[in-house]
Specification:
The complex is a heterotetramer, with two copies of chain A and two copies of chain B. Chain A is built from twelve helices and 14 strands. Chain A is an alpha/beta fold. Chain A folds into two domains: 178 residues, 3-Layer(aba) Sandwich (Rossmann fold); 126 residues, Rossmann fold, CATH 3.40.50.920. Chain A is globular and about 60 Å long. By secondary structure, chain B is an alpha/beta fold. In chain B, helix 5 runs parallel beside helix 6. The chains are: A alpha/beta, B alpha/beta. Chains A, D: Pfam families: Transket_pyr, Transketolase_C. Chains A, D: Keywords: Oxidoreductase, Thiamine pyrophosphate.
Chain lengths: 323, 358, 358, 323
């Protein structure tokens, strides 16, 4: 039986809540409503209002109180309702959550997970389609992860809740209803590693989240042109699993990185900068970024064109092969 | 929680003697009916797939029209995303309210044309903009002069949920400490999406103001006459230099949060039904009928409604798609070179018709 | 603004009959004297270049010792950066307070060892941590059981300036709505660096609580007996499940904001002089002398002071420099590969002795 | 007479306030105290409390009210007291200030300047030594600038206040007292351009803010080894003046970028990514970043070693020449 990403998250949360009664959830509308995307559906009914907390409407309060709960021995999982609404919590995330282990010289762990539905392409109004990952990836002390399939969702949410580091957990909302099989018995990969989703020899295509299925389609299309594209799902956006990326590009000699977030100071630039430094002599073409443009997210009537998609990624691949 | 509500027009349509005799009740009635019609049509357009989403104001017409009509033209309003009735009173073309929800724009109107700012979707953020604007009024010297052509104030809208955001409370701090010409108009519709007001607070909204040292007033938000009266008074105080007021208009969100919401998951229909019997329009209709208002008046309003409906339906479909270049053009006052390069790339894609993502 | 302050020990050293007879006045005196000595020594160490900075608590000893001594061992305190007196009462080694200001650490002690959290430098941020901790206490079932070995509460400190931060107000929202076992202890020392309290608010700090629907209490913050009494009472209410209290301890910051500050730029010495005559320690000394306290007691305290001074001076200089690897080691629970590479590069630099920037 | 950067900023602010009575200042302790770094010294005395506003202690309030003032026709200049205290204002900056022109389809300009003293090396406590520029540079709609000398400070603050875009103005606090001559009559460079501070032929060294004087020293030291290093002061951190950088690297074939902020998703990565894409065939060595490490800013006893300095930059140059 195949499971949607949103349900896989729900199942994953349920399972860690069953295993560890210190796990609790805090967020706006996550209780009776089950969250606007229903990721927490039924959990308040089964675990009660003390463990699935309908928060007052304040994101600083959500993350700040989660920090306090973690200090008191709990493992809180916060939900931020949409990408664009995480910013009121930025002070707690950047000055407190990310830095507390360091401040306390390793004495205090803050195992807080911050779940955020991210990304565009759903025809939404402003603030509901953004990709804020770079803000978090630039902040040392946070782990940033994003699943791309039901299996990854199930594994990663469980691993994130178990992590002793704070984890920003980015859910590709465009693909919440994408289904896949889940193996619930397999030992999940440790948090922090990338995954080769489709092997290939001629070019490495790195992406994450909602763009992973697109990247697989890109690879299939490129294969028709006789180009063998290796697709890597970052999974961990910070820290970045250099080893997997380097090993691939060393073989292929070509790199394209794709994400929805704006280009400037985005993750694509980071990966490109790392690769060109490590593999200067291996690269046969410049490493190319295919990203959202350096504008605010446009009105939804324009998002189809604004977002990086199949064609732009394929064109980048073509361009790579012109070198 | 309803004991201490100021009211002038009772639920069964009886007008208190204390009501200001010169108030334009017909105008209020018409505004409420017309803005409800905007709401109803928008919901229909959403069902037909013409809008992605619509946040309904059903049940909140009295609060909004009462407040909206209290504004002078020079006063400035800062709405949330639900103030369709205030927009109506300010003279904003209701068709332009639809663009944001159709995805053709993130704004849709010129905020300076009617002194009605853009909708703000980030809860509470507009309260600080309103504070800043009020600071501007003070610096312009347009407060407390006694000259009715000069004194101005700001009216900022917020929901009950917004009371929990830090920014809203900072707005209270600034407004109080600087005694600004600002009125906070909170429609306590008792819900923030699925969260009943009890999630936010155990005491009435208006009480919050006391803690910051300014006036808080509770009014029956389904009573347009009372909502209007308290807002007129609060705005006068503000313009006169007597500082801020927090108005709590106690009302009820009768529809789901937006057309995407499923309120059956978190509330019983019964309470919504109760509030339906407290309908603000019916209340005023009863009163107007009681005092023998001509049938022609109601017929005239009805015909304006029909006209409006048609205009909305046609206008919505005619809303132009934004230019592909528009986001690039409006990010900076002058376009940076790299962004221009990005724009040109983008326009080439669009021209080639191959930009749609997989 | 001082009319309604609760007080038990008058400025001229007269103790009210209402004071709890069992209170350990000698202990309070000693704690105030010792924590003042920590403060004085730290200022001296700063002048000698041993510390980069020190935020003095001079004048706030009564508020801090009153509050600090009201805590049970299981209660948890969340300080700002000025609670040296509370740290003293909690049994935190005062030498460890110096590391942060010497630059050898950003923390300096184990927050779980004495239930005294790390200093928080971001104004207001700790109020939300305290709220979360209090939510944890509720979930542990350690509130309102009536079992004095079980019930716990949180005591969080904040300044008058912190009342203006959004986060502080969100903490009030959460504490009130969830009726949490938490006490907010605000030392209104009348200044936020150069900003007099009038920049933040026109009404007393304690009044803020009303707006959120919980208790606010004003106390003479230079009266250690009263500060203690109101905190004991508020903590008891919190532990019993009767929800939060905001205590305003009205006092005065007699020194500049920190050793880097030049308060001559923004305030007159005269007001500081006035508050010097209200010294909290002298007040209690007068009372203790009046009731014939043995000279030996004062001599004993003085000799402990001397010992403390020496320990601080030696301890400060002996504070170890952090390991070059330490930031890398404490960023994540498990070090990521790229960070390990960065660390190794860094350690090579340091070993080569060539890392100092130009 | 030579002027310190802090005084040049004071002068620049004074001059724009004299020229345009819509310019006003808002911040904590900027009035009677003149700011903790005295940048606004004397301005409240001369322009009054209505134009130099001692703000309540809330950064969201400072930026949010500045937005409202801008809507009312004013040109507010905010001061955030230290780098680490800008995060409570992040929501107003990212969701409102940066996006309002876009949201209003160009109808509303928000000419707000946010001044922030940034950077380390001053022996300060936590939150007083950080370099948050990447958060702003990643946010489309903001301009981000940083002066490196008294002249730049004077010119840039004036240009920033006059800009119709929101400008995040990063002041290199380590060099507040660095002195230089100011020409007050010269037409300042338009905001948005980089500047070649020292010409050279063999390698391009790009940096900004407090590291510019260090970079000039680096170039001098490299010259002794017979290497001619061109130093570019970015000045505008966003948008980036690609043309100046490209023109230089095209000639030199080598690039080192230095900044104090952490590496991951920092500006260095962005510049490197751009250059390797544009100048793939010109580069003779990988483009190298010399940055703060991916940890929180350390206790001040460690900052001397943690910060990128002369030696690390020189070593990066050496490394570049090994290719
Ligand atoms: C900062 C922020 N957080 C979360 C949201 C998501 N959200 C949209 S509306 C809403 C509830 C608002 O409730 P209220 O303030 O009572 O206004 P109402 O919708 O009832 O008019 C929430 C949580 C948001 N828009 N902004
Ligand atoms: C979020 C934030 N903004 C600004 C500062 C800079 N700052 C440090 S202390 C202080 C004043 C605090 O005043 P108050 O809360 O009254 O505490 P006090 O120093 O008087 O004890 C300010 C503005 C800060 N630490 N954090
Ligand atoms: Mg509501
Ligand atoms: Mg204070």
């Amino acid at each position: 039986m195949s499971t949607a990403i949103a349900h896989a998250l729900n199942e994953g949360l349920r399972s860690v809540m069953e295993e560890d009664d210190k796990v609790l959830l805090i967020g706006e509308d996550i209780g009776r409503l089950g969250g606007v995307f229903r990721v927490t559906d039924g959990l308040q009914k089964d675990f009660g209002e003390q463990r699935v907390v309908d928060a007052p409407l304040g994101e600083a309060g959500i993350v700040g109180s989660a920090i306090g709960l973690a200090m008191a021995g709990y493992r809180p999982v916060c939900e931020i309702q949409f990408d664009g609404f995480v910013f009121p919590a930025m002070n707690q995330i950047i000055t407190q959550l990310a830095k507390y282990r360091h401040r306390s010289e390793g004495r205090v762990s803050l195992p807080v997970v911050i779940r955020i539905p991210v990304g565009g392409g759903i025809g939404a109004i402003e603030h509901h389609s953004e990709s804020p990952e770079a803000y978090f990836a630039h902040t040392a002390g946070l782990r940033v992860v994003s699943p791309s399939s039901a299996q990854e969702a199930y594994d990663l949410i469980r691993a994130s809740v178990r992590s002793d580091d704070p984890v920003v957990f980015l859910e590709p909302k465009h693909n919440y209803w994408l289904k896949g099989e889940i193996d619930r018995s397999a030992a999940p990969a440790p948090i922090g590693t990338a995954k080769v989703v489709r092997p290939g020899d001629d070019l490495t295509l790195v992406t994450y989240g909602a763009l992973v299925p697109t990247a697989v389609k890109v690879a299939a299309a490129a294969a028709e042109d006789g180009r063998s594209v290796e697709v890597i799902d970052l999974r961990s956006l910070s820290p970045i699993d250099d080893a997997t990326i380097f090993a691939s590009v060393e073989r292929t000699g070509r790199l394209v990185v794709a994400h929805e977030a704006s280009q400037t100071a985005g993750l694509g630039s980071e990966i490109v900068a790392r690769v060109q430094d490590e593999l200067f002599y291996s690269l046969e073409a410049p490493a190319i970024r295919v990203t959202g443009y350096d504008t605010p997210y446009p009105p939804s009537r324009l998002e189809g064109d604004w977002l990086p998609g199949l064609d732009r990624i394929l064109d980048a691949i073509d361009r790579s092969f012109t070198y | 929680m309803t004991d201490d509500l100021f009211s002038l027009l009772s639920p069964d349509g009886v007008l208190s003697d204390a009501a200001n005799a010169s108030v334009d009740l017909r105008g209020m009635f018409s505004d409420m009916v017309m803005s409800r019609r905007v709401d109803t049509e928008a919901i229909a357009l959403q069902r037909q797939g013409e809008l992605g989403l619509w946040p309904s104001m059903l049940g909140q017409e009295a609060a909004q029209v009462g407040a909206g009509r209290a504004l002078n033209p020079r006063d400035v309003a800062f709405p949330t995303y639900r103030e369709h009735g205030v927009a109506w009173c300010r003279g904003v073309d209701p068709v332009s309210l639809l663009g944001l929800f159709r995805g053709t724009t993130l704004g849709g109107w010129d905020p300076t044309a009617n002194n009605f700012n853009l909708y703000t979707l980030v809860i509470g953020a507009q309260t600080l903009h309103a504070v800043g604007y009020a600071m501007g009024i003070v610096r312009d010297g347009d407060v407390g002069t006694g000259d009715p052509e000069r004194d101005r104030a700001v009216l900022v809208f917020l929901g009950d949920g917004a009371l929990s955001e830090g920014e809203t409370n900072e707005a209270f701090v600034w407004a109080a400490a600087q005694n600004l010409p600002i009125v906070f108009f909170c429609q306590n519709n008792q819900w923030a999406i699925s969260a009943p007001y009890s999630v936010q607070s155990r005491v009435p909204v208006a009480q919050r103001a006391q803690g910051f040292g300014f006036r808080g007033v509770r009014v029956d938000g389904n009573d347009v006459v009372a909502s209007h009266a308290v807002t007129v008074e609060a705005l006068e105080q503000a313009r006169a230099g007597n500082g801020p007021t927090l108005i709590e208009a106690f009302t009820y969100r009768r529809n789901p949060h937006t057309t995407s919401d499923d309120d059956g998951r978190y509330r019983e229909g019964a309470m919504t039904d109760d509030w339906t019997t407290l309908d603000p329009i019916e209340r005023l209709r009863t009163y107007l009928t009681t005092i023998g208002t001509d049938e022609d008046f109601f017929a005239e309003v009805a015909s304006q409604e029909t006209e409006l409906s048609e205009r909305l339906r046609a206008g919505c479909r005619a809303l132009p798609d934004p230019e592909p270049a528009s986001s690039f053009l409006h990010t900076y006052a002058e376009m940076p070179a790299d962004l221009e390069r990005q724009m040109n790339d983008h326009l080439e894609y669009v021209a080639a018709g191959e930009a749609d993502p997989a």
